[in-house]
Design brief:
It comes from Budvicia aquatica. With 207 residues, this protein is of the alpha+beta class. It has helices at residues 7-20, 29-35, 37-50, 74-87, 107-117, 139-147, 153-163, 182-196, 198-201; strands spanning 58-62, 68-71, 167-169, 172-174. A hairpin with a 2-residue loop joins strand 3 and strand 4.
Amino acid sequence: MSELFSHTLLESAFTWLCQTRKHFPANADVWHLRFHWQAEKQRLYQQLNAGTYQLSPLQLVKTAQGDTRALWSSPDALVLKCLTLLLTPQLPVHPRCEHIKGHQGGKKSVQRLHQVLRQPNSRFVCRTDIKGYYARINKQTLYSQVQSHVHHPILLNLVWQFLHYSVEDGALFILPNSALPAVPRSVHSWRHSISTRWMRTLPTNRI
């Protein structure tokens, strides 16, 4: 069996999951995963490397503040973290895509934009990241863009499952238009920037 998803990779994603869900309630599935981790790790290792792993629908949960959120199961969240770690070095990300970790986004992006706008020839801001922009990116287009850089069938299968996810609300299954994560959407931004040639002519930042 080809080891695309190594034990080291799974452990790294497991550490991340435990950290991000350490304050989850006692009935959350993360505690079951943690208690049975050795057996679950072997199951995930076998299914992922065989290409048979299937993502489950997201579940609607209530937060302590009373808000409703769509949440991946803990095994799925761990698998998607592994997928992100494997895809990141394979996908092109322009330095100006500042929503990516390590690209000096946030306050530094705002400060740089403020400095640019104070220059005589920089009078306009063109905002593409409007509400719902990434949620309405054509999934087939995005998948084709990922395909041009990622060729492993197991990775592509997981990307396809992720892009075509659903949400379970009781017995009702919903196919929503929801925001895409940072890595796939940065590929779309990179493609968009190249096609419009903005990166070659303007001091553009993707915040």
